[in-house]
Design a protein that fits this description.
This protein has 156 residues and is α/β, with parallel strands linked by helices. It contains eight helices and five strands; from the N terminus they run ααβαβαβαβααβα. The protein has helices spanning 3-19, 21-24, 47-58, 72-82, 97-108, 121-125, 129-132, 142-155; strands at 34-40, 62-70, 86-90, 116-119, 137-138. Helix 3 (47-58) packs across helix 8 (142-155) and helix 4 (72-82) packs across helix 5.
């Protein structure tokens, strides 16, 4: 499969996902919890983290999805402004794991630093990598992310 084919498949997937938003955003049982979700800088593979954000929204969270390749200082600034209950960070390419570590360190400098969940291919291959980069939690899939986060927040 060529890069052009992959981009086309991504575009079609994103269009189909956007057709579901009228159903996703009318969920009535709100939990008064906020998520900020995005890919680290240099990471362009955003469908997975978009799905994670949508799963949280469906389950009553206020999800703020920032997209792909967010510069670390901008990421930190919006997290500081919004004061989320959880930050979800994605990296699909292994060479971006260092960016995840650096972002977690930067977010940890905030006065009211929220817990950070990480996900993506490198974290599914090395099941202890999330701890090594300083994350608070990890979910292997969008469908498990909400459960993992809510269980974590109950124990805090």
């Amino acid at each position: 499969m060529s890069v052009a084919h992959e981009h086309y498949a991504t575009s079609v997937t994103q269009m189909i996902m956007s057709e579901l938003y009228p159903y996703i955003y009318r969920a009535s049982d709100r939990k008064n919890l906020r998520l900020v979700a995005a890919c680290v800088n240099n990471e362009l593979h955003e469908i997975g983290i978009r799905m994670v954000s949508d799963f949280f929204e469906i389950n009553g969270w206020d999800s703020v999805y920032l997209g792909a390749s967010i510069p670390p200082e901008d990421f930190r600034k919006i997290v500081d402004e919004l004061k989320p209950d959880l930050v979800a960070v994605s990296a699909t390419m292994t060479f971006n794991v260092g960016h995840v570590r650096n972002l977690i360190k930067l977010l940890g400098e905030l006065d009211d630093s929220p817990p950070v969940m990480v996900g993506g291919y490198p974290f599914n291959v090395d099941t202890e990598l999330w701890r090594k980069v300083g994350a608070d939690l990890h979910a292997a899939s969008a469908s498990s992310a909400v459960r993992v986060a809510e269980e974590f927040l109950k124990t805090e």
